[in-house]
Structure formats: C-alpha cells, structure tokens
Design goal:
Elements: E1 2-7, H1 13-24, E2 29-34, E3 46-54, E4 57-58, H2 60-66, E5 73-80, H3 87-100, E6 105-113, H4 118-125, H5 136-144, H6 151-173
Parallel strand pairs: 1-2, 1-3, 3-5, 5-6
Antiparallel strand pairs: 3-4
Helix pairs in contact: 1-6
The chain binds flavin mononucleotide.
C-alpha cells in the first residue's frame, strides 16, 4: 500500500508538518511531494493532503488538486494561525474534507497551529480598525505561536495518520471497507 504526502506551504509551517509526518510514517512505500515543485502523478492508495488555511479552507493549490482525486483514501492535515481548537479550525478542516469526500474515503484529519508569517503580521499592523487588525491580544497570540507547529503537534498528527493507515490495512485484510469519516 503506497502513501503519498502532498502539501503546499507559503511560509514553512505546513512543510515542517508534512516532513515530520512523512518521516514518521510506518509505510513500506511512501513519497513526499511539494506542490510548488509541480503536481505529482497520483498513484498512492492513501493520499495525505497538507494545506495552510486560507480564509477558513484549503489553500488554492491543494483545493484544486483535492477536487481531482477519485477513489482514494484521503487523510487531511493543515496549519492555521488562529486557535486550532476554535470553530474556525473545525470549519477549515470541514472545508478540506468537503473537497474530497464525495469521491473518496476520508480516513482522518487534524488541524494544528502554525505561526502567522511576518509579512501577514505587518499587513495586519498596517490595517485600520477591524476584525483582523492587530490588537494586543492578537500580538500576544502571534508571539505564542511563533514556533508552531510544535514537535508535540507533529507527533500527534503523525500518530493519527499512522493509526488510520494501520486501521485501513486491518480492515482491508478482513475485506471490510473503511467507513469514511464525515468531517
Ligand atoms: C492569504 C492568507 C489567508 C489566511 N487565512 C487564514 C485563515 O482564514 N485562518 C487562519 O487561522 N489563518 C489564516 N492564514 C494563516 C496561515 O494559514 C497560517 O499562518 C499557516 O500556518 C501558514 O502555513 P505555511 O507556513 O505552510 O504557509 C492565512 C494566511 C494567508 C497568507
């Protein structure tokens, strides 16, 4: 069973997570693809898609790829700058799953925190008053997240993907289909 980890990253958070997951994957056959280097041939039984959250959904390159996938087992992982346990985070994962779940089987997903890039922070600091403008609370959150995703977050994401792939193998050996997870 081959697993392909495919990701897109602007400022490195999703790349760090994707590399960590890839290194920890207990699969006989696996490959890692950065979409910035081009779209890979899709030949994996399991496709792990990694995106940075853009307006509560997958970044465009991953969204466009996700919408072409058919008959695959798909795991989703993403990084975002807002709180990863918020309803906004749940929506960001849901919107990723929505791109694939009609034609594929979703085997799992996870949202972890990334940091806000310096470029985005500068942009927010330059904005007038509004929901996204810089504030003391936002500045404190950006500072708190500056080293995310953390090693713990990467380990948890890796564990989740390994567990789901193992479950898929176990079910396949018994001739049972993986019940797609509605996210
Ligand atoms: C155009 C743009 C839109 C973004 N939209 C969101 C968003 O809706 N919610 C959020 O929490 N973070 C948002 N972010 C922050 C990124 O998702 C976050 O910093 C992510 O960890 C960056 O990952 P990367 O380093 O792999 O590019 C946005 C960033 C950019 C550049």
């Amino acid at each position: 069973m081959k697993t392909q980890v495919i990701y897109h990253s602007l400022s490195g958070c999703t790349e760090k997570l994707a590399r960590g997951i890839f290194e920890g994957l207990k699969c006989e056959e696996k490959s890692l693809h950065n979409l910035a280097d081009g779209t890979p041939e899709i030949d994996g039984d399991v496709i792990l898609l990694g995106y940075w959250v853009d307006q509560a959904g997958p970044c465009k390159p991953i969204r466009e790829l996700a919408e072409t996938l058919e008959n695959r087992h798909v795991g989703l992982f993403c990084t975002m700058a807002f709180w990863c346990e918020s309803s906004h985070a749940a929506t960001a994962l849901h919107n990723g799953a929505a791109c694939v779940q009609e034609k594929n089987t979703v085997i799992g997903g996870i949202v972890v925190n990334g940091h806000m890039s310096d470029k985005m922070i500068e942009m927010f600091r330059g904005m007038g008053a509004g929901p996204h403008s810089a504030s003391p609370a936002a500045e404190a959150r950006w500072a708190l997240m500056k080293d995310h995703p953390s090693e713990c977050e990467i380990a948890l994401a890796t564990e989740r993907m390994n567990e789901r792939i193992q479950l898929l193998k176990t079910l396949q050996e018994k001739g049972i289909a993986f019940p797609s997870i509605t996210i």
